[in-house]
Structures are given as structure tokens and as C-alpha cells.
Write a structure and sequence with these properties.
- This protein is mainly α.
- It has helices at 3-33, 38-69, 74-111.
- It is elongated.
Length: 120
């Protein structure tokens, strides 16, 4: 098996995660269409960020064999390593922001605007 086959096999878990976040995105869009408020909008933004993060995590391993084919010097190798490191950091920050927004959305949805208990 060649490098591209290994890269494709490596992205299979990311494809499954992408499908789950697309389902969450569709769910959030439907909730907003039915008159959803701020938690639903936060869920939509968080799901969009997670879809973008999943797409980056799918694209990065596929780029490695293509970038490695063009390496002719140690400087090229260093620039590829720097690019992959920057892409990883950006992807991690994107995922972190998405997860934080999804958690806030659920927090607001299930803990906010409850009627106060009548005190006697």
C-alpha cells in the first residue's frame, strides 16, 4: 500500500465525525427555522466551526504526500513542518471554540429561563 492509501485510511474516523457534525448543523438549522433563540444560534455557530475543523483535519493528511513529493532540500522540509504545525494549532483552536460554543448552547438551553419556585 502506498502513502495515499494510508492517508485515506487515516481520515476515515474524521469523515465519521464530519457526518455527525453535519447532522448537528442540520438539526440546529431546523431548530432556528422553528423559532429558536440564542442557544440554537450558538449551537449553529459551534456546529459550523466543528464542520470546518473536521474538513481541515480531513484535508491535512491528504496534503502530506503531495507536499512530501515536492521536497528537495532541508529548507523545504522545514517549511512543510511549519505549515503542518500551524495548521494543527489553527485546527485545535477552531475545535476548542466550536466545543465551547456547543457547551454554552446546551448550558443556556437547559439551565436558563426556568420559572422561579414559589416560596411560602
Amino acid at each position: 500500500m502506498n502513502e495515499i492509501t494510508y492517508a485515506i485510511l487515516g481520515i476515515l474516523p474524521s469523515v465519521i465525525v464530519l457526518a455527525a457534525w453535519i447532522a448537528a448543523l442540520v438539526f440546529a438549522i431546523r431548530m432556528i427555522g422553528r423559532g429558536g433563540g440564542r442557544p440554537e444560534k450558538l449551537l449553529l455557530i459551534g456546529a459550523c466551526l466543528m464542520v470546518a475543523s473536521s474538513l481541515i483535519s480531513i484535508a491535512t493528511p491528504l496534503l502530506v504526500p503531495l507536499m512530501a513529493a515536492g521536497i528537495t532540500s532541508p529548507a523545504d522540509q522545514m517549511s512543510m513542518i511549519q505549515f503542518l504545525g500551524a495548521a494543527g494549532i489553527f485546527n485545535a483552536l477552531l475545535s476548542l471554540a466550536g466545543i465551547i460554543l456547543v457547551v454554552i448552547a446546551f448550558w443556556k438551553k437547559f439551565t436558563g429561563s426556568r420559572p422561579a419556585a414559589a416560596s411560602e
